[in-house]
Amino acid sequence: YGGHDCGRNWPGPADPPSVLLVARTHAAGLAAALNALEIFRRGEAPHGLDLDAVVLVADAPGRLPRRLAEHVKVIESAIDVYRVPWVPAWRLGDLNGQPPREAEALARLTGRSR
Fold it and tell me: Looking at the 3D structure of the chain, how many domains does it have?
């Protein structure tokens, strides 16, 4: 969907001031997303940096276990969340296909519509 991957670092001064926080839906990914949201809530994120939304990328096919789904609900109560389903081809590095229908809203947000 484009953008710049800052890894585990905050965007630098030359990066856009508005970001999407991307996390996997496994326990560690959701915990990291919740931690980052808390940093923004406390005003401890870099000055001038705005968080537009959270993007949650499925870490496996199928439904989330209840405990993980509860973490997602907490995130959704704080900010807009875009969900990206499991895409087997992406796991193999094949990004040539059409984005999944479930991610159309994210594609529109990032200007990468079908």
Answer: 1
Query: For the whole model, what pTM was predicted?
Result: 0.89
Q: Is residue 6 part of a domain?
A: no
Does residue 11 sit within a domain?
no
pLDDT 10s digits, 29-75 = 999 999 999 999 999 999 989 999 999 999 999 999 999 999 999 99
Residue 97 in any domain: the answer is: yes
Domain span holding position 103: 18-109
DSSP class per residue in 35-90:
HHHHHHHTT-SPTT-EEEEEEEE-SSSSPPPHHHHHHHHHHHHHS-EEEE---HHH
